[in-house]
Specification:
Elements: E1 3-7, H1 11-22, E2 26-31, E3 42-45, E4 48-51, E5 57-58, H2 62-71, E6 77-79, E7 84-89, E8 94-98, H3 109-113, H4 120-134, H5 148-154, H6 159-174, H7 183-195, E9 203-206, H8 210-224, E10 228-231, E11 233-235, E12 239-241, E13 244-251, E14 254-260, E15 262-265, H9 269-275, E16 293-302, E17 311-315, E18 321-324, H10 326-329, E19 335-342, H11 352-366, E20 375-387, E21 408-410, H12 423-444
Parallel strand pairs: 1-2, 1-15, 2-10, 7-17, 15-21
Antiparallel strand pairs: 3-4, 5-9, 6-9, 7-8, 11-13, 12-13, 13-14, 16-19, 16-20, 17-18, 18-19
Helix pairs in contact: 1-8, 1-12, 2-12, 4-7
């Protein structure tokens, strides 16, 4: 039996470990934190269970949904029967993006033609642009050389159409403004996530905290699969040792060394580059070009309900997206709202007091009932490195699972999955990494491998 070390206990590492165990390998999972789940986790604040960020996903996230099924928590999500997003404006206007029961691409026609945030001519232009998007190939390297914003301007989209529709969806999906977002990744988002099939964009929202959905559930599933989980255990390097590898570790009980036939590196790109620095991995220095993009989440607990909506997108306001987290967080009274703010470069270092002065009046303009409500709590969670910077040119930098060193494989949403930095991309990468390791190990043992 071959031993595989998986470095990193996020979604990519969890997936890789489960798939390697399924293939009969002895698996050791190393995680520096005291919990599994990576960037998706929860903490308590008073009576509330808080997620660091609001994670929603789409019906087209088939790999991620498969992982939730494997973890036994597929019943802990709520999927829309049909795509539906209320869109609010600070001036009191409201509209609805939704699909009908028609097949693609007619499923979105009523939503786009009836979208009151745009003029009639802008709506017609948006329809034409959507049809043009369906003809693009997200794997075309030429698309990664331009930004979404530039492509939309070349199509004749107005600044308002870009702001009120395309950016509304793209900023949340890519954690980047249109002028900073790769057109290749935007094409993946809009084609796979919205345009290609009628139900692909139906939105799912977890109904339990992420620590329960990912961390606790993964711990149970990995234990059942026989994976040796080592928490509070940090890999310091990865070095060749004969035909295999040695991994120096730092644990709470002291330093040690683990040996393995193969290693899957499932940590963020900056950490991955440092871990493989002693090995001939081509392109590792270039991973730094992926950089990072921040997300902040603004959390507000009111003493009474201020909206009946469980989710809404917002225009002409500092607020981007707002979610009602009251029941999920276990709030005993009032209403708890979480604001998800992507591409938050201007706010990531802003003082909480200043953000309070910005966002509370903004919420009062969106939800008039908030003007009479008392704020019981206000706080901010910050993710300075929430995703890699999904800018034009990143496709050439994102590495494949294989490193060129037999038995050393990469996983993570930052690798060349073809997906943006999402839960789907993370899970896809973990599955591919496990497959690559299995093929390497079988080849070393002289087992016939077929494509």
């Amino acid at each position: 039996m071959s031993r595989v070390i998986v470095v990193g206990g996020g979604l990519a590492g969890i997936t890789a470990a489960l798939h390697c165990a399924d293939r009969g390998h002895e698996v050791v999972l190393l995680e520096a934190r005291s919990r599994l789940g990576g960037a998706t986790y929860s903490f308590t604040r008073g009576d509330l269970v808080i997620d660091t960020g609001q994670h929603v996903f789409l019906r087209c996230y088939t790999a991620y949904r498969g992982l939730l099924q494997r973890l036994g928590v597929a019943g802990s999500i709520r999927m829309q029967s049909r795509f539906r997003i209320p869109v609010l404006s600070a001036d009191g206007r409201a509209s609805l993006l939704h699909r009908n029961g028609f097949p693609a691409p007619a499923h979105l026609a009523p939503a786009l033609l009836g979208y009151r945030m745009l003029t009639l001519s802008e709506r017609i232009g948006v329809m034409r642009t959507a049809l043009a998007l369906r003809r693009l190939d997200p794997d075309d390297p030429e698309l990664d050389r331009v930004s979404l914003g530039q492509w939309l301007r070349d199509r004749g989209e107005s600044p308002r159409a870009v702001e009120a529709l395309w950016a509304l969806l793209a900023v949340a999906a890519l954690n980047a403004d249109p002028d900073e977002a790769s057109m290749a990744l935007a094409t993946r988002v809009f084609r796979t996530g919205v345009l290609d099939t009628a139900d692909s964009a139906d939105i799912a929202i977890p109904q339990v905290p992420l620590g329960q959905l990912h961390g606790s559930a993964a711990h149970r599933a990995l234990a059942a699969a026989g994976v040796d989980m080592r928490l509070r255990c940090r890999a310091r390097a990865i070095r060749r040792c004969g035909a295999g590898f040695q991994v120096p570790l730092r644990e709470s009980t002291g330093d040690s060394v683990r040996f393995a036939d193969a290693v899957i590196v499932a940590v963020p790109h900056q950490a991955a580059a440092a871990l493989v620095a002693d090995l001939p991995v081509a392109g590792a220095r270039a991973w730094q070009q992926l950089s990072a993009a921040p997300i902040i989440n603004v959390h507000v607990l009111y003493d009474r309900p201020v909206t009946h909506l469980d989710m809404a997108a917002v225009l002409d306001s500092p607020v981007q997206w707002v979610f009602d987290r009251t029941a999920i967080a276990g709030a005993p009274r009032g209403q708890y709202l979480a604001l998800s703010q992507s591409a938050a470069h201007e706010h990531i270092h802003t003082r909480t007091e200043d953000l309070r002065e910005l966002f509370l009046p903004a919420l009062q303009r969106i939800f008039p009932r908030a003007r009479q409500a008392a704020v019981l709590d206000f706080f901010v969670t910050r993710e300075p490195r929430a995703t890699f910077r999904q800018a034009p040119g990143t496709a050439a930098v994102r590495p494949p699972a294989r490193t060129g060193v037999p038995g050393l494989v990469l996983a993570g949403a930052w690798t060349a999955t073809g997906w943006p930095d999402t839960t789907e991309g993370a899970v896809v990468s973990g599955a591919r990494a496990a497959e690559a390791v299995d093929l390497d190990l079988r080849s070393q043992r002289g087992v016939e491998v077929t494509a």
